[in-house]
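pinning this so it doesn't scroll away 📌
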Amino acid sequence: MLQGTRHKVKYDGMMHYLEIPRARETDGGQVRVVARNTEGEAEASTTLNIIPHDDWRSKLRQAPKGMG
């Protein structure tokens, strides 16, 4: 099970969720999940693509100050 300071696996009583708060481009790549129990095993995989968003902070600093 993947657990770390930046990755968490959560369970809501029915499903497990992989949570990556503040995901970075380096978190992207192949994700493979294996579920096992006494009846057997199932596997699924996918590709996680991280799309960075624009950083508006520098533009906001240059914006004119509000009137007041």
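📌 and the second one:
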Amino acid sequence: MGKSGIKYYTIEEYLAFERTSQSKHELYKGEIFDMAGASFNHNQIQMNFTVEVRNYLKGKPCNVFGSDLRIHVPANGLFTYPDAIIICGNPQLMDEAFDTVLNPSVIVEILSPATQRYDRGEKFMLYRSIPSLQEYILIDSESFSIEHYRRNNDNTWLLQEWKERTDTFTIITIGLPLLVEKLYNGVRI
């Protein structure tokens, strides 16, 4: 226990706990955090995104995964479950349990009122420590809004935004143009 009465966990303790848990948790700086459930809109957007990307990637050397695949960022100790990730090439797995990946090429988070500040701020800062990460995409669950960050050759990040249903943006890593309206199909805005 720390001075504040908070129990701190080792990576081994966290993984033992998480691998038997019925719900998902994040680990950062030794603390375990519950991950909140998701709204109808959140789930619909996640499904729309993964279906569009999965269909496009058939037969290609990249793959898309939903929110049940955990990632680990060794540079800062974060363990978390992004809403979607794209991995190009062979997945680098943390250990023989094959449930924690180290090399996402693209990370997608779907924003909710409860998570948007964290996803845009500290979480993005932590994600930037992943050498393989090339793109970070934030999709708002309550309005037509997509924020797309792309890593430049000099390790800076370029932000582009789309706010119209008829806008199209491209996931550069895989060369997929996506119509904003398709991601929001069935979503109640």
